[in-house]
């Protein structure tokens, strides 16, 4: 049975831990607001960029591009976007559970974040590139990631590239999602389906555009930018999810520590009261024995 000294030491230790988790909760809370705003504000821009890209591709006559080439099923690459640090609840665990479903024999992996690189190395999966990203993510970082995926696809090493990231829903909910990055034909398919669902629409529209100097140069440049815009939006979603999950995890840890301090304090008071009662009984018994 622990002594009162042991309980006092444990209370002091838990109180110090609670102070640390409270400080981490406040830091994560301040970063969370900025990250959430960046992710939510980036969604309309990403949607508009996809719509613009779709109109440009459909407006070009007989246009083809290697990034739009649909190939037969084969090897694929997966970009796993995780965090650099832990203490964010089950965020990374849920993400890695989805990553573990991919066949390691036919899948190449690109790690974005230190936790993803550690998981892929620990599970002995084929890691072809590793990246880190700041808070907030920069355009150059997303461009480097998109360039690595594009090179794998254009060299024919993989037939498709997917992104596994954590989508921000709200402060209490974040969900792992998979999105196909290459080939980029899904952009055209989504917008065409939206046009077909419009009331009174007989079919998808095909506007005519004049491209200078040529459709290949203009749309090729737009495709590269669209690829980078998609990647940076994934990074913003992942960063917002990370700060939200960490804030909630540290809040729960602080509350659990405070409850543990209350329970330990109650046990300490009970033991102390029991000790005082025992001493009083011993004094009373000694007095009765002396007459």
Write up this protein.
The protein has 291 residues and is α/β, with parallel strands linked by helices. The protein has a domain at 44-245: Pyruvate Kinase, Chain: A, domain 1, CATH 3.40.1380.10. It is 62% helix and 13% strand. It is built from 6 helices and 5 strands. The protein has helices at 4-59, 91-99, 114-122, 139-154, 185-197, 215-290; strands spanning 76-81, 107-112, 127-131, 160-170, 173-182. The protein has a 5-stranded mixed beta sheet, sandwiched between helices. Helix 1 (4-59) packs across helix 5. The radius of gyration is 29 Å and the shape is elongated. The two termini are 36 Å apart.
Output the number of helix runs.
Answer: 6
The CATH superfamily of the domain at 44-245 appears as ATP synthase, F1 complex, gamma subunit
CATH class of the domain at 44-245: Alpha Beta
Number of strands: 5
Cα end-to-end separation: 36 Å
Q: Which sequence of strands runs across the widest sheet?
A: 3-2-1-4-5
* Unreliable parts: 188-194
Helix content: 55-70%
CATH hierarchy: architecture of the domain at 44-245:
3-Layer(aba) Sandwich
Please trace the helix and strand order, writing H or E for each element. Answer: HEHEHEHEEHH
Gross morphology is elongated
Q: Beta-sheet strand percentage?
A: 5-15%
Helix/sheet category = alpha/beta
CATH topology of the domain at 44-245: Pyruvate Kinase, Chain: A, domain 1
- What is the gyration radius calculated from CA atoms? 29 Å
Mean pLDDT: 86
Sheet with most strands: 5 strands, mixed
